[in-house]
UniProtKB/TrEMBL annotation:
Tagged with keyword Glycoprotein: no
Gene Ontology biological-process entries: respiratory electron transport chain
Coiled coil stretches, renumbered: none
Keywords linked to the UniProt accession: Cell membrane, Membrane, Transmembrane, Transmembrane helix
Cytochrome b561 bacterial/Ni-hydrogenase domain boundaries: 6-181
Protein name, UniProt field: Cytochrome b561 bacterial/Ni-hydrogenase domain-containing protein
Location relative to the cell: Cell membrane
Taxonomic lineage of the native organism: Bacteria, Pseudomonadati, Pseudomonadota, Gammaproteobacteria, Oceanospirillales
Length: 219
């Protein structure tokens, strides 16, 4: 067995930044409203991080690309069944089920921050696009925005349980891999993650530009 670099530093940076921002958003969103300014600005930050991750899924390192972990539904079903009986093929990157979870989480998070841009706290803070839609649509977005965190928490809990399952059942050190980027694999593996500079510049540049634009809009 050798350690193979799978998750390069942009992926690890985006992952843990997403974790921190999501945690902060849950705390401020479910609080008494005194930290609503932090909630808005962390929501802006999360939108930028998700944007960078989506872009990096197309122009990033090999194991970060969506095409690397988008599998045929049959293979996803087969792998799901294998996991239920404590088996399953080893994948260097995301396995079929893990790939689905990544996409679902990114989609749910995008809906969460996206709806937040069109609503207000009905007191002091207004999303930058609040006045662009009707009151009825804004109310619908607000209802979705306030109910979706519970679904996101359930998805995150499922994600954590899956990681723990792999840690305990298959001895696959996924948490450590997301810290240092390396996973153990047979010595015949020749592929290592390579960080494309242009992919990093475009992904992070677009995220910074998006964030700067949001911050420039009065709320």
């Amino acid at each position: 067995m050798q350690k193979v670099l799978v998750w390069d530093w942009p992926i690890r940076l985006l992952h843990w930044t997403m974790v921190l921002l999501f945690s902060g958003l849950i705390i401020t969103g479910k609080g008494d409203g005194d930290n609503m300014d932090w909630h808005f600005y962390m929501g802006y930050g999360l939108s930028a991080v998700v944007l960078a991750r989506v872009l990096y899924g197309f122009i990033g390192s090999d194991f970060a690309k969506f095409k690397q972990f988008l599998y045929h539904p049959v293979e996803i079903l087969q792998h799901s069944k294998a996991l239920l009986i404590g088996q399953g093929k080893a994948y260097l990157g995301h396995n079929p089920v893990g790939g689905v979870m990544v996409l679902v989480l990114l989609l749910a998070l995008s809906v969460q921050w996206g709806t937040g841009l069109f609503i207000s706290d009905e007191i002091f803070w207004f999303g930058p696009f609040y006045g662009m839609i009707s009151d009825d649509l804004s109310s619908s977005f607000a209802s979705l925005h306030h109910s979706l965190p519970n679904i996101l928490l359930a998805l995150v809990a499922l994600h954590i349980l899956a990681v723990l399952y792999h840690e305990l059942r298959f001895k696959e050190r996924l948490v450590a891999a997301m810290l240092h980027g390396k996973k153990k694999h047979p010595t015949d593996v020749e592929k290592h993650a390579s960080t494309p500079r242009i992919g990093v510049l475009l992904s992070l540049g677009a995220a910074v530009g998006w964030l700067a634009w949001l911050w420039s809009i009065p709320v």
